[in-house]
Amino acid sequence: MTEFVRDTYRYRELIWALALKELRVRYKRSLLGFFWALLNPALLMIVLTLVFGTIMRFSIDHYAVFLLSMLLPWTFFSQCLAYSVDSVVGNGELMKKVHVAKLVFPVAAIVSNIVNFLLSLIPLALLIALLRFPLHWTWVYLPVPMLGLFLFTLGTAFFFATANVFYRDVSHIVQILLSAWFYFSPIIYSLDFIPEKYRWLFRMNPMLYVLNGFRLSIYYGKLPSLSSSALSLGCGIAALVIGFSIFRHYQNRFIYYI
Amino acid sequence: MKEAAVRLRFDNVVQRFRIIQERPDTLREAFAKFRRRTSFHDFEAVKHVSFQVAEGEMVGVIGRNGSGKSTILKIIAGVYIPTSGEVTVNGSIAPLIELGAGFHHELTGRENILLNGLLLGLPKREVLRREAQIIEFAELGDFIDVPVKQYSSGMYMRLAFAIATEVNPDILLIDEILAVGDGEFRRKCFERIEQFRTLGKTILFVSHDLGSIRQFCDRVLLLHGGELIEDGPADFVISRYEALLAQHVDSLRTQAW
Question: Is ipTM beyond 0.90?
Answer without folding.
Answer: no
